[in-house]
Records
---
Amino acid sequence: MSLKKVSKDQPANFEFNEKSLEKAKKIISNYPKGKQQSAVMALLYIAQRQNNNWIPLSAMKYIAKFLDMPYIKVYEVATFYTMYNLAPVGEHFFQVCTTTPCMIRGAYKLIEVCKNKISQNESEISSDGKISWMEVECLGACVNSPMMQINDDYFEDLDEKKLETIIENIRQNKKIEPGSYKGRKSSEPENNRITLMDIKNA
Ligand code: FES
């Protein structure tokens, strides 16, 4: 697991837009009076969604004021959890799982493709500004490994060729389809097997 760096280029100001403000108020209303600080993680996530998938320091300061809590506490939360991006990411943000099941099934071959086709180092945006990638821990789709998350969607049963095609399609502004790249529905067994005793289709 890599550590996320805080961006050196920071916008001076941040505030919630109308939609985010509405969402934030709704979340805070779920907590008893005086316990609004418990909403900090959700509000950081709202800020990230509003700000092209990353959280600037000014958003942490804004949230600290919003929740009446010390800025350092918001900073601690934002820098502890890896799902918060603290620097800009590509328009298509690849999170490549390299935990054991995905690793055994070729995750590091996918990392090589990312290095060669996107950027040599993780968390660097490709020269066309379209893609960035990083390694992450298990995303809970081990049965369909190796897999990665691109923005909000899972792309599963990948290999180098399939990933290269996905990257090519993004570069050509073509739609990319999430799901299994072996045509499996959800995590059903391969080759139409129905039970473990189904030897002929194994
Ligand atoms: S190990 Fe990759 S999804 Fe679980």
---
Amino acid sequence: MNRNKPPVIRNKGARRTTGRPQRGKSPAKPAATNLRAVAATLIAGLLNQQGSLSSALDVVRVPDNDRPWLQALCFEVMRHYPTLQALLTPLLHKPLKERDQDIHALLLIGLCQLRVMRIAEHAAINETVQAADALKKGWAKGLINAVLRQYQRQQAELEAGLAPAEAAAHPQWLWDAIQQAWPGNADRIIATNNSHPPMTLRVNRQQESRDVYRDRLDHQGIAAEPCAFAPDGLRLRSPVPVDQLPGFYQGDASVQDESAQLAALLLPASPGLRVLDACAAPGGKTGHWLEIEPQLHMTALDVDADRLRRIEENLQRLDFPETTLRCGDLGFPADWWDDQPFDAILLDAPCSGSGVIRRHPDIKLLRKPEAIDALVEEQQTLLRSAWSMLAPGGVLLYCTCSILPQENAEQVARFLHDTPDAREEPIDAAWGIACAHGRQLLPTEEGGDGFYYARLRKVIAG
Ligand SMILES: C[S@@+](CC[C@H](N)C(=O)[O-])C[C@H]1O[C@@H](n2cnc3c(N)ncnc32)[C@H](O)[C@@H]1O
């Protein structure tokens, strides 16, 4: 497949948006009955910095048949948001009012269809104009029509005026941060961030080998290649819905990126160890750690009760019902911890997500540079708190899905400097880049997501 080529996405006309809410959550109620208008409502929420694209898509009501197209449209707009916004700004004589973010979103959707998706021009424009009616904002039809047609007329000139970061569909701060941190790899990182992510599976080694499962996939007509570094990983040639995966609901395989599959391999795993997955939801790494050693005494913690339920679902599917689940804040152990130290701790810290932008392109819009400093402080607090629960001789694996050094190697340097009983255990591996502390995986189109790992051991006093 040529991954640089934009996907061909079928055009969709107006549709009714009836359907069932997903996962029993209260459904979002888009004030619209056409898919572009539904997308505009969701994207307007993001423009207002509310929620995330995945959570909005999780609860929106649309017929199952329409979901892939809606999802593809929203993801494509987010993937190209910095470019689309830069093209839109000079086309608007004055900014739209805050209450008209849905019209703003419709304009981005129109530009995206014209510039990125191969939707016939007349359909892209007419359907987007009609969507204003569905939003009960008929007054905006003339504006949408005028802006999209002006874009068609001035496309070459407008494109020529884009700054490099805008043309590369990255916010300026992130583009600068990538150039500064990874000058030799920046172009590749940026291209990967703008690409469509692969679907990668983790085969449950408690059930069968990767080769056997690959044969089962093959029988279903699903082509897959073994991952280069993750021994349980299979990368699918094309994504498929999970219900087409053989034995998925019996726990034979899980969906997990290759880089994320490296975490459990870096952790101790022997029967009876008392271990903590400290930021565990939705439980991807918890499940893998248990697949490697089902006799672990595992506690999985997350501060978010809704997300904790997803760990429960995942561990039920994988048949690990013995895990202790705790809803609590890692920074406040007194609220949930029984004072028994852990032999090993996985801290998959909340982070910028700068290594997984291809999977969560709304990061380009939602993540703000001023929030990174606060995130870095939070990570240091969580690291210190997790350390206080680690037994002497125990191991803590710190990881993020970030590629920013301040969340990674610099974070660990600060922690080691301030923590006399912490020693770094180098990670000797064929993957990633050895940093001053820890190892960094950069996102690549042919490989896994951007991830960072550092392994720390608590020295035994004496
Ligand atoms: C990167 S995700 C973890 C992904 C997970 N390890 C996996 O592999 O499926 C980070 C998680 O940390 C949780 N979190 C954030 N702050 C926390 C805190 N103070 N205490 C516990 N969990 C926290 C978030 O709710 C989120 O689920």
